[in-house]
Predict the 3D structure of the following.
Amino acid sequence: MKIGVFDSGVGGITVLAELKQRLSSVNYVYLGDTANLPYGSKSPAQIETLSIRCAQMLKQKEVDALIVACNTASSLALSAIQTVMAPIPVFGVVDPGVQAALGALNLISLQVDPVPILVLATRATIQSQAYGKSLRNTFENGNTFKNRNIEVFEQACPLLVPLIEEGWIQHPVLDQVIQEYVRPYLKEFKKGVALLGCTHYPWIHDSFQAALPGWQVVNSAWAVAQALERSEFFKTAQKPDEANVGRVEWMFTDPKALPEFAKKFIQNRNARDSILIQPVLNA
Amino acid sequence: MKIGVFDSGVGGITVLAELKQRLSSVNYVYLGDTANLPYGSKSPAQIETLSIRCAQMLKQKEVDALIVACNTASSLALSAIQTVMAPIPVFGVVDPGVQAALGALNLISLQVDPVPILVLATRATIQSQAYGKSLRNTFENGNTFKNRNIEVFEQACPLLVPLIEEGWIQHPVLDQVIQEYVRPYLKEFKKGVALLGCTHYPWIHDSFQAALPGWQVVNSAWAVAQALERSEFFKTAQKPDEANVGRVEWMFTDPKALPEFAKKFIQNRNARDSILIQPVLNA
């Protein structure tokens, strides 16, 4: 079995890492559209055009399923990607993230009413309102939340991806910037659920948790790996031989545009990985 | 007369503002390649491809001269742009910035020897070494610096553009980030010349000056406007009628991808400007 992971850049590596941990019996193709990153600052029309082009590349690679790790593409171009890939199943990160956030309600005392659910993501993801809409729909149509109320907040955190890509992960500036973003919510609510809706944020999950003591912090990168593992598709699909699994084929639309920290991550790979960095430059 | 200003995004607005101040007797066409920003994270090959496409758009607009406001394009694609535009004159920002930095040597006491010249720019500009090479060449071939020595340093400041675009211009985090970048040089040298080699940096010129007390801070956005004003081309070119000048035609490859702060700038325009925001989406 070969699973495709698509991201606008390198953030999807967090999703791939989680997938490999949970689903070691499959091979992976990772496609990062580094020639066009970041999607977060582009318009919906252009995000759809670029996502379709990437889906076509992955279809040619004959993947058995596709994970859209990019939150922006999941929010704005999922159905366009599904049309290209059909009948191959496509998993976005938004719905699994929403399931994880609502699942975390069980960990919050019934005395907290309503429970604040704070979505933290890039500006494009927040502006798409994909998480907010999915949270409200799923909550209203679910049977398990009868005795709860939620209040959804969405906060764009556009400075975090640059800080992470620069490697300022242990830097006091990172904590200050996170505090600036969460302060208004923390002031109003002592407990709640924070949903990290950006592939880069698992790298700073602990910093979010430190900035939001008393809150449950969940992230959609981990959630989508869990969703795939539990899916009917995965349970019934044929797995490859043990000797031939766990490989990652790396594709970047502009391999020269890889951030330094991502190169290190790819080089520190599992010895079993067979790595092919493949330029697919858009003319 | 119609002057084209090309930038990867909106930073070139600082160059346009300076041009309009100095050269009010001309019309302008501004082209921001917002569909593909930022150039700073792309590979040299892709930067050249994108720059050529933009030069072709501006040639069709029949500009009389072109300012390449984008430092990344000036550093990596100037000759490709010149080939497309010939015989129309093309001005990059690197050489004017270098002239301004070397000119500032006169303001530094002879007791400072060598004089440190610190180039501050995005990662792509620094990696191109365009400023460093031009500084050393111009210095070695100049006659006016015989009694001086210089030492060139280049520092990438990749977090500053995101902070500026987010409007964190008066924020303590901005000052902290600048201090982090300049600290090693300030520790070694009490006086020197700092050359701001990024179109966004004029917006935070004062913060750089505050972080580098005793240093001369020059920026290439202002320098290129001065270079055009002093050029043979400008002195001999025919000027338009007074009634018909100072207009700016705005073009963006993706007008929906404009940062909020840039929209505000364009809306707070001089009443004489005739503004046309023109979508030129790349398919």
Chain B has 13 helices and ten strands.
